[in-house]
Amino acid sequence: MGATGDKHNATREAGDPIRVYGVDFSAAATDAGRKTWIASGRVDPQRDRIVVTDLRPLTAVAGLDTACREAALPALARWLRERDETAVVGLDFPFGLPQFIAEETGNESWQSFISRFPESIGVDGSADAGEDGSSDPVRTFAERCVGLTERHGEGTYDKRRTDAAVGARSPYGFIADTITFYGIRDVLATVLDEVRFAPMDRTDGAWRPGVPTGPTAVETYPAAVLDRFGLHRTNYKGNGDEESANRRRNAEGLAEAADVVYKSESTATETMVADAGGDALDAVAACVGAFTARRRGYETDTAAFDDPSAVRLEGYIYG
Asked: Which domain holds residue 212?
């Protein structure tokens, strides 16, 4: 497993628990703090499984008085920095863009692309949208990416190789553009020097020299995690009886098939079932994605990629 496995084994021998977290991310302007959920867990070393110990929205975890995006995203970044080197955190927003976009804008590494985003692709991201939608950096970001795609890509909204592999949407399409923009600008770029990222910070199965000694962050995709265990990838978000039943099946199915134990089984399950938006359930699925990534030594399955090395610029979804 390389350096990561050795470090975790040493930690385990010292008796410190290995922490695993899943973050269902939202960048909603007025409600990001309530719609971002965090599942907290620890690894049971005897049975190599996750014990989910806490499941709450970011407002509760960070003690926020407001759920607005301007308060929630810096709070999430602070929370991420506060994790130690035994922690792995699964975040469910795109960590990058298609390779041709990064290369076209002169970025030779993922780190340089992220550290200067969105200026790294020629977008002024200093302002947020006004009430009339003017000066909207997300719109400008998406239009810039579409323009580059028309010159170098294969469609209006191109996918990364890892998106295509798990059925995820384009990171700058109208569904994901907001979480991509704010997730990269207000979370990843602000913690780049304090958090290590897999697989971008790894070389030949080990962390690259000079990598931060903080927690490990990975990109995950709850729909892909649910799909892998034969659970409901869709039709579990909503207020209807069918969606509620599907959330219950997913919550119970993760416990049955994905090496997950809920410390308070009834409370955790009912929380996931009661949350019609599916955010609590997605946070637990993201936790499973992070756990699986760590358990497999952050290996990437790129056999079907036309260019396996693209993950160094594009990022990789651990599903």
From this structure: 3-318
